[in-house]
Amino acid sequence: MANNERTTCLVVGGGPAGLVLGLLMARAGVETTVLEKHGDFLRDFRGDTVHASTLTLLDELGLGERFAALPQRRMESVQVQLDQGFAKLGDMRRLPGAHQHIALVPQWDFLDLIADAAASEPTFTLLRNAEVVDLLHDGGRVAGVRYRDRTDGTEHRVRASLTVACDGRGSRVREAAGLVPRAFGVPMDVWWFRLPRHADDPEGGVGRVSAGHFMVMIDRGDYWQCAYLIGKGTDQQMRAEGLPGFRDRIARLVPWVADRVTDLESFDDVKLLNVELNRLRKWYADGLLLIGDAAHAMSPVGGVGINLAVADAVATARILAPALRSGGIVGIDRLRKVQLRRWWPTALIQGFQKLAHGVIFRVRSATPATDAHPAAEQGKVGMLDEVDHTTAGALPLPLRLATRFPVLQGIPARLVGIGPLPEHAPAWARRPSAPATRESTPQGS
Ligand SMILES: Cc1cc2nc3c(=O)[nH]c(=O)nc-3n(C[C@H](O)[C@H](O)[C@H](O)COP(=O)(O)OP(=O)(O)OC[C@H]3O[C@@H](n4cnc5c(N)ncnc54)[C@H](O)[C@@H]3O)c2cc1C
Questions:
Q1: Which atom of ligand 1 is nearest to the CA of 305?
Q2: Is 81 touching ligand 1 by the criterion CB < 6 Å?
Q3: Is 141 helix (H, G, I), strand (E, B) or coil?
Q4: From CA 40, how far away is CA 442, in angstroms rounded?
Q5: Rounded Cα–Cα distance for residues 86 and 119 (Å)
Q6: Residues in Cβ contact with 135 at an 8 Å cutoff, skipping those fewer than 6 apart
Q7: Span between the terminal Cα atoms of the chain, in Å
Q8: Is 144 helix (H, G, I), strand (E, B) or coil?
Q9: Separation of alpha carbons 165 and 37, rounded Å
Q10: Is the CB–ligand 1 distance for residue 207 below 6 Å?
Q11: Using the 8-state DSSP alphabet, how is residue 409 labeled?
Q12: Ligand 1 centroid vs 101 CA: distance in angstroms?
């Protein structure tokens, strides 16, 4: 066992919550160590969305220009492709503030950017390949962690005034603390795969909805990252039905990609992602706080989990950094304040996700039409108000209203693009904007 190490704020997990928290704590002058179990941020099964409120936060942190220099796509509307054509559900151009879009950036680029900015703070340390295996205790208080260096298998201890678990929905820290989240049933899982993207395809994100099917396509430039929803626990059964049947299903669902479904060469190209939705009743214990997915696992619906995790981190730094900077122990009352601040926006969004799961489940349970709608069959994929007014009456009420009264598209845009209770950088974390340079532009995409 290597020597004991010591820090003031110990952050477990270098995802969106952990790295943003690490950056802000370090900018407050708090000695901060982030432990990340992987050697890099190059993991595919993460979201890509950076929402308008997070873009504003990056501006406040002086990172807006560097973020803008990253290769990215922009989503200015939330649209679904129904059998009748495209329908716009949310219009980001109606958002207030400096950013009227959601940026689609591979998460590893976003995390590299934050880690790079944090590395320039003298009080910041990021240890990669550092997998936390257990908590250390001092009496009844959490006093740090035990971690394994995955490069050589050695074990280390880090003691800290405060440990913050940002280790995601499978949180080891949460388990070690004996905390069990309340699970909200989720009716589906995700099949995750790529299809090539052509220059004349639609831009941004596309949701495709048809009786029996639901798929989201994320524009990653030269390919589509596709998330096809399957019933929870049906993975094996669906794979047994064979790849040709699945390719055919995708081709019928999105006729404009029918020419490339053969790029799916085997089911190895189709990964199963388990969807969870849960929340801890109590996000803290003496010496320990849990935020982001470790406190509340988010469903991919609406693509809001990253934004929420970042907002948790900002609130945590604002509420706790002053006490940590002055060297004090952070009492349980202060930890409770973080939960009080972030609980209701989280519960509200999870409530919407639960509602959306119900709608999606009903769509997926509906019998697939034996013949696709003529517009879909012919690959006519224009906006509904350009394509097919006669069938628009068959739309679900919210879509009908949003199509008829475009001003209403501002409401989902605000809910998704900004979210309830956006958090802003505290004055001590703000910096003037720094332009991107060759050295400062993160690599790794
Ligand atoms: C299929 C799917 C698609 C999604 N798509 C989107 C999307 O498009 N947009 C969006 O906003 N949200 C999306 N989400 C939700 C989003 O991924 C999460 O809400 C968000 O990543 C939470 O951030 P976090 O920092 O709390 O946790 P995470 O992003 O999970 O980060 C946790 C970090 O902790 C590290 N870690 C884990 N265990 C340990 C350990 N023992 N020791 C050290 N480090 C550890 C991990 O390696 C990881 O880097 C999606 C979720 C799913 C399931």
A1: 19
A2: no
A3: strand
A4: 12
A5: 44
A6: 142, 144, 145, 146, 163, 173, 176, 177, 288
A7: 36
A8: strand
A9: 13
A10: no
A11: G
A12: 22
Q: Which sign, positive or negative, has the C-alpha torsion 55, 60, 61, 67?
A: positive
Which of 4, 100, 19 is closest to 291 using CA atoms? Answer: 19
- Tallying the residues shown for the chain, one arrives at 445
Report whether residue 118 contacts ligand 1, using a CB cutoff of 6 Å.
no
| C-alpha R_g of the chain | 23
- Whether 149 and 133 have beta carbons less than 8 Å apart is answered as no
Answer whether 425 contacts ligand 1 (Cβ < 6 A).
Answer: no
pLDDT tens digit at each of 445 positions of the chain: 455 699 999 999 999 999 999 999 999 999 999 999 999 987 766 778 899 999 999 999 999 999 999 999 888 887 777 776 777 778 888 999 999 999 999 889 999 999 999 999 999 999 999 999 999 999 999 999 999 999 999 999 999 999 999 999 999 999 999 999 999 989 999 999 999 999 998 877 778 888 778 898 888 888 998 999 999 999 999 999 999 999 999 999 898 999 999 999 999 999 999 999 999 999 999 999 999 999 999 998 888 999 999 999 999 999 999 999 987 789 999 999 999 999 999 999 999 999 888 877 776 666 554 444 444 444 434 444 444 444 445 666 777 777 778 778 788 888 888 999 999 999 999 999 877 765 444 443 3
- The CA 170 to ligand 1 mean position distance, Å, reads 9
8 Å CB contact between 163 and 144:
yes
Mutate to test the pocket of ligand 1, among 298, 299, 415 (most ligand atoms within 8 A of CB): 298
Q: Which amino acid is at 433?
A: S
3-state secondary structure of 189: strand
3-state helix, strand, coil in the chain (%, to 5): 40, 25, 35
Domains of the chain from N-terminus onward? 4-70+105-184+276-354 (3.50.50.60), 188-275+359-417 (no CATH)
Beta strands in 106-254 (DSSP E): 124-127, 130-138, 141-149, 155-165, 182-183, 188-196, 206-210, 213-219, 223-231
Q: What is the pTM of this model?
A: 0.90
Distance 82 CA to ligand 1 centre (A): 30
Q: Where are the beta strands (DSSP E) in 221-302?
A: 223-231, 271-273, 278-279, 284-285, 288-290
Q: How many CA atoms lie within 13 A of 430 on its CB side?
A: 9
Ligand 1 atom closest to residue 167's alpha carbon, by position in its atom list: 34
